[in-house]
Amino acid sequence: MADVLPTPPPTTGQPVGPKRFTIALSYPGEHRARVEPIAHRLAACFDQDRVLYDKFHDAEFARLDLNTYLPALYRKESELIVIFLCPQYAAKLWCRLEWRHISQLIATLDAQRVMFLSFGDPGDLSDLGILGGDGYIDILAFTPELAAEKILKRLKINQGITSPKPPPTIAPTAPARIDISRIIRYAPAELIGRDAEKKLLSAAWAKTLRGEAGRPTVMTFVALGGEGKTSLVAKWVVDEMNAKGWPGCDAAFAWSFYSQGTREQQAASSDLFLKEALTFFGDDADKAFAASPAGAFEKGQRLARLVGQRRSLLILDGLEPLQHAPSSTAFEQGKLKDQGIAALLKGLATASHGLCIVTTRCPIHELRGVPTAPEVKLLRLPTEAGVALLSSLKLERDGEILRLSGAQIDFEALVEDVNGHALTLTIFGSYLLRAFRGDIRQRDRVKFEKADEKMDGGHAFRTMAAYEQWLLRDGGDEGRREVAVLRLMGLFDRPADAGCLHALLQPPAILGLTEPLMGLDKADFEYCLTGLETARLLTVNRDATRAVISLDAHPLVRKYFAAQSRAGSFWTTSIRRLLHCVFSQIAVTSPSWRAAHRRLYEHLCASTQDKPQPTLEDLQPLFEAVIHGCEAGLHDQTFITAYWRRIVREQRNHHDRPVGATSEVLSILQMFFEEPWSRPSGQLANATRLHVMEEAGTYLFVLGNLQEGARVLDACAREKRMAKDWVGAAKCLRLAREAYLLLGRLHDAKKRALDAIQLVDQDHTKSGLIEQLIARSAYAQVLHYLEPSGDIEFWFEKAIKIQRQLDGDDAELYGASGVWYCDWLLDKDRFEDADRVAAYMIRAAGQNRWLMEIALNHHSLVHLLHRTKARSSSTVGDLIKKAVDEIRCTGQQHHLVKTLITRAWLRCEDGERLGAQADLDEAWEIAKRGPMKLYMADIQLLRARYFACILPYPWNEESATGGWGAKDDLAAADKIITECCYHRRDRDLAHAKKQLGQ
Question: How confident is the model at residue 105 (pLDDT cuts 50, 70, 90)?
């Protein structure tokens, strides 16, 4: 025992003599790929002889008694000893031998010579004497350069004790910006059976570095859940990029959409991702744009430009929450629901100097057939690889290392039984190790069925049911605790943070859910978590002090245990009952499910601070609260308290609401529908139900989903009419009118505008009077588009009369009514009247700080100044740029199209055709999604008039057969104008035909 006792400290802090090694590295072999590049960077500062890294001294270490010679070098001959902590460290013979000598420095002045680093959570190393209070740096997401810099910084701090020679400065060669923390934790120590896919990724990156023409710029890995998509990409990043110093990479960013929620009912949003990614890749202007209310489509386009202009690596993991499911009948399977991601991926597939890697369960419809965006199907594990995976699993129990054992034929049979499904094999192997000491012959405890193969997660669910049955039947108190934790995970569609877990575990117990966990001390709870981690059923995320930050599980694990919690199967050990909860997708929720979600809802509402100007991040807990509140059956309370009062701040005008959350808000509104967007929840009171429909219809319209938005608004108007809410019904009809107007359904728009007038005229309150004014202006606008020679002025005059009744004899129309009136005045060449109205509008909007109205007024002023030649073209150009930027920041898609078309027209007039083409292309991308047919006709008219002489015609690929020209654009515009009765453009169409000789 004498050799393990601490040696007495020297009488001074100075070293006895010079040591052979400046730095010594102690690590387990599983992490050699991560440690080796760090060792090489340290050797570049000194030389290999001064760094104790085994490969630098392999000739010396090929000797007898290395087990005593090598460990002594750490204690006696090394100035700074760097220990790479991880769960494998305590289990490795050589690490334990090295630590036996290093630990003798504890409680001496030489303890300063020891530095702890870790690759993620180091696990419990208390049996080595490394305790929770010992500090370490988690370098899991660090580049080798950054890790080396930390070591050198510590060396400098220790100079008064070790007196090493001053190390030279490392010239950084790594990318300036790297953020892969969201996926790197999912990199396995060993990845089995995916060598071909890793080589494919490496080849794609090599082509990126060479800049090969036609190379992949977006690579999508498609597979069912649990096949190992995330593990593959994370392991490749660790081994081939991070460990090798990010060869040729300028920036790397990874995002997991699994962290945003995977519940099918809730459509995940790209809002938070776009904000974080734009902030990461962009400059100050991009950061400001990221925080603005600009639409997701514009942010996606901008991000594509930022990512594509350099050799960037962008990883999007788990994209399926943003896609239409394979079971969808209303939409193409795999079509992106999110406009921001669609714009990003299309942009990167078109032009990029970098590489984007996507993982998803469903092929991306928008990238189908795109040569630069190949799709790679991640197939099942081959039998040999599946056997290797099973053989790699192990469990330490009472000092004994257990592994799966049995005949090769049984290993192979199990792999084939589960169709080579990686997650199922991992869980099944863990189950056999814990329940049967690894006896592979017990595989027949789980009866797989052919039908399981057709269900995403079918084999995994059956395995989890058997595992759960064993834990409940034979696992005793510990087994019941583990099941309880897993069922808590089923309450979340994202990682469960410590605050939420704490709320769930407060007394009183939630019957049927948390009883086994009540009253547990910290040690017992940690033991429970360790068991689940060992079983590969849970991921525990900790901070530097090893305190739990959050718990996470594979989406299939969460889905399985969500079904158990929802159905209230309690502590049954019937495997038939356990599977019934999953496979039959029971819709009725148990009291325990509702009670747990109610507690989470109340916790999130109480713990979230209201801020004057909340950011998207500030609102995230309230978005989560909405989900839990609805799952608790508190739809009415949740909408009024969490959504209306706290998220949107009771702001009727959505552009006055918290910035940057438009898509996110629409996604959580789905929680108030049993079937989006046609059947609101039956838990809502009638007034709340109508409010929900109005909110959904408005957000659908604002985000450019015109047809769906109009349908919801029509339905809402019908019900409000039945309730005699004349103003509310008129508002819905007026907004539906605008949607139909853009869709080119002008007669439908006219009918709704006229209906709105008839309804609101029954309300004689002040709010009714205001809506009467707007309804008449809206009707006049429709007539302006449909019947330019009709009684447009009559209806505008009626609106003006009401305006002056409200605000005095000198009042003019302002807001949206003023914009519509000004448009008509300009078309009639009544410039003096337009000038007077524009000045009044701008003054009113400025006094009230109506940001959207200010932008629209600037747009009207641009037309006025250009038509009257009252200002120079540069002044007009500055003003239209301002209008575009202002409108872009409101997130109003239809208004953005209008301002882009105007700027394109002005640029054409000034001969700036490249800028005009870019504006027309952006406007077209937005308009065709609506489809905003009237704006599509406007765009095609401009293209035909101003680009007819350009060869090749910039849009010659609009036709599938090629050869599209100006005359084709003109014919397409003519067709829309004729079919839609868009007679406002008759004069422009005639002029264009004359210009093209028709």
Answer: confident
How, if at all, do strands 251-256 and 375-377 pair? unpaired
Tokens of 188: 């396995």
State the residue for tokens 């370490």: 136
pLDDT tens digit string along 20-31? 889 999 998 878
Q: Where are the domains of the chain?
A: 2-162, 177-377, 384-590
| Stated pTM of the model | 0.76
Write the pLDDT tens digit of every residue in 954-994. 887 665 555 788 999 999 999 999 999 999 999 999 999 99
Beta carbons within 8 Å of 69's beta carbon, 6+ residues apart: 61, 63
Percentage, residues of the chain above pLDDT 70: 89
What kind of architecture, by CATH, is found in domain 2-162? 3-Layer(aba) Sandwich (3.40)
Position 10 scores a pLDDT of 38
Q: Is 638 exposed, middle or buried (0-12, 13-18, 19+ CB in 10 A)?
A: buried
Question: What are the residue ranges of helices labelled H in 291-443?
Answer: 296-308, 339-350, 383-392, 408-417, 422-436
- Quick one: 963 exposed, middle or buried, by C-beta within 10 A (0-12, 13-18, 19+)? exposed
Identify the DSSP state of 10.
Answer: P
Phi-psi region of 357 (alpha: psi -120 to 50; beta: other; left: phi over 0): beta
Tell me the mean pLDDT in the region 186-193. Answer: 89
User: Can you give 91-143 as a three-state secondary structure string?
Assistant: HCHHHHHHHHHHHHHCCCHHHHHEEEEECCCCCCCHHHCCCCCCCCEECCCCC
Among candidate residues 479, 477, 492, 489, the one with its CA nearest the CA of residue 431: 479
Q: Enumerate the H helices of 670-811 as residue ranges.
A: 686-702, 706-722, 726-743, 746-760, 766-786, 792-807
Tell me how far apart the alpha carbons of residues 926 and 937 are, in angstroms, rounded to a whole number.
13
| Residue 76 backbone phi and psi in degrees, to 5 | -100, -30
DSSP letters for 36-91: HHHHHHHHHHS-GGGEE-GGGGHHHHSSTTHHHHHHHHHHHHEEEEEEEE-TTGGG
Work out the number of other CB atoms within 10 angstroms of the CB of residue 832: 9
Statement: residue 412 has pLDDT above 70: yes
- In contact, 323 and 334? CB cutoff 8 Å: yes
Rounded CA separation 80/22 (Å): 6
Tell me the residue type at 334.
G
Closest residue by Cα to residue 259 from 527, 454, 492: 492
Contact 360, 318 (CB under 8 A): yes
Q: What is the mean pLDDT of residues 727-744?
A: 96
What are the tens digits of pLDDT across the range 278-324?
999 998 888 888 888 777 888 998 999 999 988 999 999 999 988 88
One-letter identity of residue 980: C
Q: Which residue has the higher pLDDT, 652 or 818?
A: 818
Give the list of residues 6+ apart from residue 516 with CB closer than 8 angstroms, or none.
477, 480, 481, 483, 484
Instruction: Please give the torsion angle defined by the CA atoms of residues 864, 869, 871 and 875, in that order, rounded to the nearest 10 degrees.
Output: 80
Question: Is-contact 792 799, C-beta < 8 A?
Answer: no
Average pLDDT estimate for 686-690: 95
Cα 750 to Cα 164, 452, 720, 787, 867: the distances in Å are 85, 54, 20, 11, 29
Q: Is the pLDDT of residue 159 over 80?
A: no
Residue with tokens 């999007």: 316
Average pLDDT, the chain: 86
Domains 2-162 and 177-377 share a fold: yes
Helices 792-807 + 815-827 axis angle, to 10: 140
User: Cis (ω within 30 of 0) for the bond into 931?
Assistant: yes
CATH architecture for residues 177-377 = 3-Layer(aba) Sandwich (3.40)
Strand partners, 221: 359, 376
> Helix (H, G, I), strand (E, B), or coil: what is residue 567?
helix
